[in-house]
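W.,

You were right to be curious about this one. When I first looked at the sequence I had no strong expectations either way, so I just let the prediction run and decided to look at it fresh. Below is the sequence, 498 residues in total, followed by the output.
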Amino acid sequence: MSSAGGIKFQYGEDLKPRTLNTKSKQIIEGYFVCSEILPGHVIAPSLIFQQIGPRDIQKHSKWPRALRIHGSVTPKLIIPVLGVTCWTTLVVVISEIYYPIAVHPIVITVLGLVVGLALNFRSSTAYERYMDGRRAWSWLGAMSQNLARVIWIHAREREDELGKQDLMAKVACLNLIIAFAVSLKHKLRFQPYTQYDDLNDLVGHLDTFSKAAGQPSMRPKNRSLCKKIGELFSIPMARSNPRKELKRAKRPLGNLPLEILSFISAYVGDIIDNGTFPLAIAQTQALNTMQSLNEILGATDRVLNTPLPIAYQIAISQMTWMYIITLPFQLVQLMGWAAIPVTIFAAYIILGIAAIGHEIENPFGPEVNDLPMELYCAQIASDVTVIASKPPARARDHYMHTDNKPLYPFSSAGYEFWLEKSEKEIRDALRTRASISEGAMCQRQASCAESEMTVRGDRDEEENTGEVSESVPERVQNAASIGQQTWHTYGRGGSSGN
């Protein structure tokens, strides 16, 4: 990775992928420190495209699923399956050449049933935790949108300099909503500090325990060849403790998402006190949304810190390996040398299911099949910035717009056309629109779209050739008057037609 010309980051200050020059980068404790480009910023490895995971769900692969390696647990099974192969070969050689080994096949049925139930319990429990994590992030996205919308629309801005202060305060609060999601992502990955590239600029001005605790450990990490190989094949003894940053902290780390939520609550209380947030229902909605954010924080913490009891994990692992080890003794009498490949395939299936359950048990990690929380954070940031991109909308700006088609697809007439009609005529048109069948409505909508595409095509042809077709003005006029035609056909209580 150090020889690459640059490293792409999925989430940057502009919320877009970017490339940073890495000539001066230094690899320290698994983090990338670019002193010349981002002084004092520590870039978490979860932001780097070239890492193992999580998988980018926006990418499309045309490879058949049976032939894919990325996202598969096959690399993790190489060492265990090789061990099973050696063991099975030894048992079959002894049975076929030296001393026949015979175990009644009923043992396969009994042990297989027990192991199947155990693996089913393991997989269903792990997947339930995975879905709990996904539901929490989905709920976080919805609550972030809701809180940002309520504050941006209903928090008023005063005049002159006070209005500027109100505007900047609203923007700062919306940034804290984004920071809540980003800080939650880091907390769930046991990254408790604030000096990360996607977080520091959002919360660097806040007085928090994480900021006071300093930066991640800066001690060089020299990994041996054995550890590198062990991590490649996911050997348990080679795995690093994911909570090591928490244990190395010299000062209290606090709870950064909770502290950010407290700052958001303080802002809401301030705008209620100064009278710029007067709508009572909006106040209630904002307070309820912040309570939901707190519940999301608790739900993710429950998933993270409540794994399957260790007794279950040990028992399921022991039963699985006992079944695999005894399997060649049961097959050699029936299948002879063919027991070797059959045992290998059976071990691959059984160990694969167990490995999948172990991998998705914690859905917040940096593995391939874990939740793509970078994508979720980027989506939340995008939604919040879209809400803040325009001044709070007024209702009359959209329903009184000249391009508004109130009765579309029943009629393509604009707002001004229907404004000239009486209330009875409008209600008759609404009643007629409701009586039109769904199929006829879809057909009429498709017909309107086809007419519009025809007009656009003729206009493009006119611009390219410089010749004006005689049918173009007529088609433009017909398209413009389609609302009037629809009104005369259906709006006076006539047949609903097709």
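Here's what jumped out at me. The first helix runs from residue 74 to 98. And, maybe more interesting for your project: The two ends are 63 Å apart (CA to CA).

Coffee later to discuss?

I.
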